[in-house]
Amino acid sequence: MLLALTLSLTLLCPFSVSPALLPTVLQDGDRVARAKAALVEVLVEGGSTPERNARIAGFAPPAFFAELRRILVVQRGLVKDFDNAQKAGEADPDQGEASEESVLEARKALTAFLLADAADSAKARERFVACGAAARSLTRAVGDNLDNVRIQQLIAAVTHANASGARYLGQHRNLDVFGDDVVDLLLRIASDESTRGRPAYLIALRDFKAEMLASPGRPRQLMRIAGDDLEADDVRRAAISVLAYLGQREFLDKEIASIRKKIAGDDPQGSIVHLNNIVDLQSIAELNVEAITTYEQILAVLEKLPGRSADVGFASYNLACALEKVANRVAALEALDRALERVGERLAQATLWDDRELEAMRGDPRFGELCKKHGIEVPTAGPAGHDARKK
Question: Do residues 282 and 255 make contact, with C-beta atoms less than 8 angstroms apart?
């Protein structure tokens, strides 16, 4: 996935912004060096400008994330050393507020340290640490600014990945470029009620199952969301489904039982809504056998309703994907046949050629035969990874 580097950031600004602190050696045409210097300036000074953002755009995405990770490691190391020094009594925690002059000196020293080459790095670090209280305060502030930069970029990355309407395992695994705490950042974003599209950040956690299970506190955060009756249904259900995917399905069973009580035989339209809510829970949790049963129930209701041919087609397509995931190729092809009969052209324009859940099926000669049967031309190639399946 290519991630556009659009840094429209609102960063914490613990100190007043001073004139540029960049060493003059970097004021040249070296685009990458200028990008690195601009990023350091944003983090150290605590503010972005159009000019800085334009220079940061000189990074290729891999280099940008590598630089963020490098600075994150440095910042964590400084925090650890300052904490250890304080515990050992080598630093006075009550030195008071740093003077404006000492803050400026610390910022100059930190900028020089973060931009120093390997040969000069150790001495540059010593000069920064020697700034004492101002250095400790600035180190914490840079950590806050780093979090803000990474969160803004993480939001952009998840938005980009979901732009096509895709939802499949592995979709967000490349978010690990944000660092070893990406799971905590996703939870932090999803827990912020002001965040738009919060379920997407919860669903992204499926691709970090090992990391989620490595810390008991992480599933507990999902439990708090799942058990909050005041939480929005889509957010709460996303948390419930991810918990079930992690092996904790108590919330899911309770939620599905509650929804099933609302299904009335004399209200087919309402039944479709409730069944769709159930199958969404099951699909996110990768409970594919259960999802197949629910898709069949949806189709049984839809096929009795007039004017719902397209909905039957899309539900059949989703059923085909679920059947393929449980290795029932024959039944998956039959479901796909029904889908292509009703919405073949729409699927061909959106998702048929590169839905990852049908990747193996596309190598089956019977897939091509179905396309030919419904007058759909099989392309030689498609944009990898695109999946605009109707949910």
Answer: no
- With H, G, I as helix, E, B as strand and everything else as coil, classify residue 181: coil
Per the CB < 8 A criterion, the answer to whether 47 and 141 are in contact is no
Measured between alpha carbons, how far is 166 from 387 in angstroms, rounded to an integer? Answer: 5
Alpha-carbon gap, residue 241 to 236, rounded angstroms:
9
The pTM is what?
A: 0.81
User: How wide is the angle at C-alpha 291 spanned by C-alphas 214 and 204, nearest 5°?
Assistant: 35
Q: How far apart are CA 291 and CA 20, in angstroms?
A: 58
Site of tokens 């292509």 = 340
CB contact set of 370 (below 8 Å; sequence gap of 6+) = 333, 336, 337, 340
At 220, list the tokens: 């507990």
Top pLDDT among 28 and 246 is at 246
Instruction: Kindly calculate the radius of gyration of the chain based on its CA atoms and give it in whole angstroms.
Output: 26
Report yes or no: 338 and 313 within 8 Å, Cβ to Cβ: yes
Among the listed residues 244, 177, 251, the one whose alpha carbon sits nearest the alpha carbon of residue 212: 244
- Give Cβ neighbours of residue 255 (< 8 Å, ≥ 6 apart): 237, 240, 281
CA–CA separation, 49 vs 339, rounded Å?
Answer: 50
Residue-averaged pLDDT of the chain: 86
The answer for residues whose C-beta is within 8 angstroms of residue 250's C-beta and 6 or more apart is none
Which string of b and e fits 322-342 if b means at least 16 CB within 10 Å? bbbbeebbeebbbbbbbbbeb
Decide: 46 and 17 in contact? Cβ < 8 Å: yes
The encoded tokens of residue 265 equal: 């035989």
Tell me the per-residue pLDDT of 248-278, one tens digit each, with 9 for 90 and over: 999 999 999 999 999 977 789 999 999 999 9
Cα maximum dimension of the chain: 80
35 three-class SS: helix
* CB 387 within 8 Å of CB 359: no
